[in-house]
Amino acid sequence: MAANNATMQVRGLQKSYQELHVLKGVDFDVARGSIFALLGSNGAGKTTIVRILATLLKPDSGTASVNGFDVVSQPARVRESISLTGQFAAVDEILTGRENLIMIAELRHVKSAGEVADDLLGQFGLADAAGRRVSTYSGGMRRRLDIAMSLIGDPRIIFLDEPTTGLDPEARIEVWQVIQNLADSGTTVFLTTQYLDEAEKLADRIAILHEGTIIVSGTLAELRKLLPPAKVEYVERQPTLEEIFLAIVGSDKKERR
Hints:
Elements: E1 6-17, E2 20-31, E3 35-39, H1 46-53, E4 61-66, E5 69-70, H2 75-80, E6 82-85, H3 97-107, H4 113-123, H5 139-150, E7 157-161, H6 169-184, E8 188-193, H7 196-202, E9 205-210, E10 213-218, H8 220-224, E11 230-232, E12 235-237, H9 241-256
Parallel strand pairs: 3-8, 3-9, 6-7, 7-8
Antiparallel strand pairs: 1-2, 1-4, 4-5, 9-10, 11-12
Helix pairs in contact: 3-4, 5-6
């Protein structure tokens, strides 16, 4: 990937919590307008990377730039161009969907907050539920509202930290469509997930974080070349992302013993 097309560049990122060395030299680039999926087991350090890139946490060493700005020396400039959606929907259940959007628009000093809210409600299929309290929303509706709130102010980059955790299959598909629409409109999406089918479905590029480092990175087609295709009844079958992940992580564990 050409460096001038990278909206995120990470080099040698390290972070420890007391004696726990979480990140041990992480390197990757994210192309502008793409969906980048970071895979890893629980505790692998995915959320730590997101928090560093979102300027919520300082690295111990290494460098990271987002939209051309250094996350340590230029945090305010980084924040101007990003939005972050965590693992659980950060919505006010007492307010209606429309009131949630208007509140965020006013906090961000966006003009015509009501119009912005109505546009987003329509874009995310929530217009019919605009006047209902969020406490009556389904999980998928809450997550769509959460992502809609993240888009107020037109951020160039959105971080989605395990956005479909706890959702049922139908709600997950709803959120997948929202994510794909974001990328189609030119927004860069940085996605962390434990669901391998999610990365397989959405990502332009995939990186696997294991024991503090990126052990493999590439397109799904490139990752598939790491494993030989399986043959069943003389029909060649490409390996799934789940098979790739388990083969790489599993073999890496054996080598480290």
